[in-house]
Known about the structure:
By secondary structure, this protein is an alpha/beta fold. About 50% of the residues lie in helices and about 10% in strands.
Amino acid sequence: MRNNEAKAKKRNWAAWARSHQIVAASALGVLLLLLTFMVGKLMMQLPEFKDWLDNGSMALGAASLIVAWPLVMLAWVRRYDTNRRFQQTEKNLEYIRKSFDASLIIGVRPNNVLPEWHLCWIRPTTVAFLVSKDTWENTYNLIQGHEDQDVSWDFPQDEDHPDMVKDPYDIKEATEHCLILIRRMLNKGISAERICVDIVGGTKPMSIGAFMAAEELGVTSIYLSGKGGKQLTAADLDDEKAVEIMLLSDHRVKDKPAHG
């Protein structure tokens, strides 16, 4: 039942997105056509272009515009998908699951289910959390709900623990904490190529700090988002296809065996 509801919501969102794309593309097309018309009117004021129908180059130019604007509109509508395919940054879940054994995840904020989706579907065997006082309790509750998973947790046991981020808006502090957490994984014998840093969640400085630490130590950074820009809810945790996974950097060893 929950899966059917999630699929129905996904279809409704896709239809809404398509309809709004069409409206936006139509508005852009009208604007471009209006601009073309105004340029044509200005050109008609010039004596050499008054009899423009007899001018072959003008006719060819008009035909080109008629063909070009619809192509521009189509390219604009599909710009995000095209960008992802060109950069080859979007990866499927199975690819990610086979590529990494350990994850660094930013602490859980209210109404953000992406960290839990990460645990449910990417299924790392070692997880470290970057947390502040604002996210400690939610993250603790998340871990309690996944105690049945065979996972080695790296999580501060209380809110006064030195691993806690004191200022979640300090990029330098976030970077330093992430470096410590990643190095602990490395010291356990996990290679840098088998670790991923999920930069979703927390504050923007924490995300930037996590990315900077990952780059310094040669660790891959990933970004999770609801497909089509959807805001995920708890109902989406049952849907392995609800999330797009983007590689912001790729330091993995290709085709290396991973955990089951």
